[in-house]
């Protein structure tokens, strides 16, 4: 009796095969970096449980925060760094005005405190990516100009000088 | 003319600070569009690899004047966390975290005093490492490290009297009543991070623990690097059984080392 072996495939190959069969353009493929159960807040609201899904695609990372029935998506690109929020009404990405991170609270906020998230994963990545620049830092803020690019960065007490 | 030279210098500095590579950002994704998604494998164990940094580029004075935040998509040592443990965080805040139980005296004790010269090395500490090949500053080793640890934590250190089977008899032999508290060890790590040190002095010992090298290898086991007599050793610890490299500690100092590594890895903060 002759046995027949079925070749095994890696999950990535299967996904690639499925994508090609379904006609999904390669450019639209993305990778989920992580899903994080954590806490978020909207505006002056109280902290509430939320889910963060970080999705990597070429040239950008998307952070989809699901807070109850609300979904807030932030897109961050690099070279140069831009941060945008998806406006569901206009169906467009809108540049943020500011973003801030407080390492000791594992918190990152967008557009002032419009959306704040406890996301240690994001901050761990930022910290490890630039250890010399981030050593000893606790508060980091960036502000964006009308062109969507960072036009001001500040750290710790330096941010008091640029407080709005 | 002087102004022209100054402008040229600034332009040159800006050019040197710009990273190489295309400045193209993909615009293909919208939240409504379906995605073909693949998941990356999560792992508690950090990959090896060298230290970040280095390079032979000349300093232009703007090397650390980057943009502050970035995409946050580079996988940090220890991997990604899937859950911020309930109760570990009081919710998002941009206010500086208060450091509870902070006792400045502890800092002096840990860094300068009470070092009793009992550094010792077990015969089975046989794996020396080049610390330059160890990640001693992982992303989680920063302010807020207690919550930032991307693994299960909070279960260790409920008592200063360990439940290790060997503890009672050995502690009596050593004349030790208890081990360093969680607060002492936590403060030592906080201070080291604040002062940009990569080690803490293990209480009541001369061991230097590279706290950033700590990496769980299981639910209650951990790998770490310690320096003894100027030599760096890669060790493992079983925090439930109370073992270092599979052996019971031979001295109180080794018990303190075990306790410190387990507290940083799995303790509450």
**Radius of gyration of chain B in whole Å, from Cα?**
22 Å
Helicity level of chain B: 10-25%
Structural class of chain B: alpha+beta
Task: Please bin the fraction of helical residues of chain A.
Answer: 10-25%
Major sheet: arrangement of strands of chain A: 6-5-4-3-2-1-9-8-7-10-11
Give the tally of β-strands of chain A.
11
End-to-end span of chain B in angstroms? 59 Å
Provide mean pLDDT of chain B, rounded: 77
- The multimeric state of the shown protein is heterodimer
Choose one word for the global shape of chain B.
globular
Q: Which geometry of chain A do the CA atoms define? A: globular
Percentage of residues in strands of chain B:
5-15%
Number of H- or I-type helical stretches of chain B: 6
Low-confidence stretches of chain A: 1-9, 13-27
Major sheet description of chain B: 5 strands, antiparallel
Number of helices of chain A: 3
- Major beta sheet of chain A, specifics? 11 strands, antiparallel
Largest interface: A-B, 90 and 67 residues
Would you kindly provide a written description of the structure presented here, covering whatever features stand out?
The complex is a heterodimer of chains A (164) and B (269). The model of chain A is unreliable at 1-9 and 13-27 (pLDDT under 50). Chain A has one domain. Chain A has 164 residues and is α+β, with helices and mostly antiparallel strands. The radius of gyration of chain A is 19 Å and the shape is globular. Chain A is built from three helices and eleven strands; from the N terminus they run H-E-E-E-E-E-E-E-E-E-H-H-E-E. The relative contact order of chain A is 0.12. With 269 residues, chain B is an alpha+beta fold. In chain B, 24% of the residues lie in helices and 12% in strands. Chain B has helices at residues 2-17, 104-111, 145-148, 167-174, 182-195, 252-266; strands at 36-39, 200-201, 208-216, 221-228, 231-238, 243-244. The model of chain B is unreliable at 4-29, 34-55 and 103-118 (pLDDT under 50). Chain B is globular and about 60 Å long. Chain B has a domain at 104-266. A five-stranded antiparallel sheet of chain B has the order 2-3-4-5-6. At the A-B interface, helix 1, strand 1, strand 2, strand 3 and strand 4 of A face strand 1 of B.
């Amino acid at each position: 009796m002759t046995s027949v072996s079925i070749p095994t495939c890696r999950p990535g190959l299967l996904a690639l095969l499925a994508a090609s069969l379904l006609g999904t353009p390669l450019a639209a493929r993305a990778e989920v970096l992580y899903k994080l159960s954590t806490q978020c807040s909207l505006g002056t609201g109280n902290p509430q449980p939320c889910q963060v899904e970080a999705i990597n695609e070429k040239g950008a990372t998307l952070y989809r925060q699901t807070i109850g029935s609300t979904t807030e998506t932030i897109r961050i690109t690099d070279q140069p760094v831009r941060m945008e929020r998806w406006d569901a009404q206009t169906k467009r990405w809108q540049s943020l005005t500011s973003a801030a991170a407080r390492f000791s609270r594992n918190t990152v906020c967008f557009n002032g405190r419009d959306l704040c998230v406890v996301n240690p994963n994001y901050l761990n990545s930022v910290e490890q990516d630039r250890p010399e620049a981030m050593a000893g830092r606790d508060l980091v803020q960036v502000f964006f100009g009308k062109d969507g690019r960072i036009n001001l960065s500040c750290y710790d007490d330096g941010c008091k000088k640029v407080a709005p | 003319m002087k102004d022209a030279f100054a402008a040229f210098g600034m332009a040159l500095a800006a050019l040197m600070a710009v990273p190489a590579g295309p400045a193209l950002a993909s615009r293909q994704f919208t939240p409504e569009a379906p995605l073909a998604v693949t998941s990356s494998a999560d792992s508690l164990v950090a990959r090896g690899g060298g230290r970040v940094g280095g390079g032979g580029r000349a300093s232009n004075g703007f090397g650390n004047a980057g943009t502050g935040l970035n995409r946050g998509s580079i996988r940090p040592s220890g991997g990604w966390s899937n859950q911020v443990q309930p109760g570990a965080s009081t919710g998002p805040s941009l206010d500086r975290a208060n450091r509870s139980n902070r006792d400045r005296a502890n800092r002096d004790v840990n860094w300068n005093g009470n070092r009793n010269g009992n550094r010792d090395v077990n015969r089975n500490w046989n794996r020396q490492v080049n610390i330059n090949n160890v990640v001693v500053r992982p992303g989680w080793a920063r302010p807020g490290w207690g919550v930032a640890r991307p693994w299960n934590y909070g279960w260790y250190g409920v008592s200063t009297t360990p439940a290790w089977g060997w503890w009672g008899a050995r502690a009596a032999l050593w004349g030790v009543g208890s081990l360093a508290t969680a607060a002492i060890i936590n403060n030592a790590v906080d201070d080291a991070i604040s002062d940009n040190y990569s080690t803490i002095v293990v209480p009541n010992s001369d061991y230097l623990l590279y706290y950033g090298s700590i990496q769980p290898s299981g639910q209650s086991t951990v790998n770490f690097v310690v320096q003894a007599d100027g030599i760096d050793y890669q060790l493992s610890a079983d925090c439930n059984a109370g073992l270092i490299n599979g052996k019971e500690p031979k001295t109180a100092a080794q018990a303190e080392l075990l306790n410190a590594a387990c507290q940083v890895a799995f303790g509450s903060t």
